[in-house]
Write a sequence for this structure.
């Protein structure tokens, strides 16, 4: 794994996991970073060319000229694909999954297939939302005050306390997370406290997610414009995006493959990386077989 800075209308920090084969671009979620893919990317790189960017305003990437919204970052992901050439399988988590959907819908020739891991999605029922979850979702959206509340939280907690709070919220069993997950989360959390744009980027990005997840109709219209084969993985213990939302997406798009992970929270690639890899490998193999069959080829006949 190496970190590079590439030019995508501005400097974008990318973790390059190397590998040969079809391009895979991994897209992290809100307040995450490219490190979020460290537990699955090295294995993916055995059969693919794998890269993971830090999105505009997050990780080691400063806000680009366009901004830090999900729309801006869909443009960034397209630019990353263009930089490495051709088209890609795009894998996204949470906000990164929404960005991946937007990328595939707007630039269909750049995206071969789509993997959504606990995507930002409409709230299925307000009855399923706990007060801490509602507070976490709504605070950055409060006009004028939201950023101040975020800053106040950071001012009154240590980096370690903030990381513990965050990972406890997104993981069903934070105590079982790999030690490197804690180390990289702490590195990024400490870095965020030195970046003057960190709070603004968070608030801008969070506000850009809201229109897609507040209105089911808008989200439904968006996913119905996606033409690529799509795999959706979702943890049943996700406190941020309830599993019922994933089931609703599955009903909207019965042609998509939806897999629920029992006893896993919002970040399956960190909590259950082996299971994610197993499901992805099986799905990708079946998808390729289906594509070859539709194209009139016989996938069981080897070249000799």
């Amino acid at each position: 794994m190496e970190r590079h800075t590439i030019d995508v209308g501005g400097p974008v920090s990318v973790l390059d996991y190397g590998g040969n084969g079809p391009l895979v671009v991994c897209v992290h979620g809100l307040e995450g970073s490219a490190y979020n893919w460290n537990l699955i990317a090295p294995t993916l790189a055995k059969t693919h060319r794998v890269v993971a960017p830090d999105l505009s305003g997050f990780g080691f990437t400063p806000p680009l000229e366009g901004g830090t919204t999900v729309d801006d970052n869909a443009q960034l992901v397209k630019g990353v694909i263009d930089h490495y050439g051709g088209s890609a399988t795009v894998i996204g988590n949470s906000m990164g999954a929404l960005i991946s959907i937007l990328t595939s819908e707007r630039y269909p020739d750049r995206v071969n297939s789509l993997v959504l891991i606990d995507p930002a999605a409409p709230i299925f029922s307000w009855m399923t939302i706990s007060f801490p979850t509602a507070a976490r979702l709504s605070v950055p959206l409060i006009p004028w005050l939201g950023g101040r509340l975020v800053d106040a939280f950071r001012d009154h907690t240590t980096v370690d306390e903030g990381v513990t709070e965050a990972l406890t919220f997104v993981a069903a069993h934070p105590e079982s997370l790999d030690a490197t997950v804690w180390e990289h989360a702490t590195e990024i959390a400490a870095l965020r406290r030195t970046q003057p744009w960190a709070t603004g980027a968070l608030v801008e990005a969070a506000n850009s997610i809201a229109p897609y997840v507040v209105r089911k109709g808008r989200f439904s219209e968006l996913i119905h414009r996606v033409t690529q084969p799509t795999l959706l993985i979702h943890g049943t213990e996700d406190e941020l995006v309830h599993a019922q939302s994933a089931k609703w997406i599955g009903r909207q798009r019965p042609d998509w493959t939806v897999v629920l992970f029992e006893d896993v929270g919002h970040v399956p690639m960190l909590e259950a990386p082996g299971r994610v890899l197993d499901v992805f490998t099986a799905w990708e193999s079946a998808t390729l077989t289906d594509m070859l069959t539709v194209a009139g080829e016989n996938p069981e006949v080897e070249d000799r």
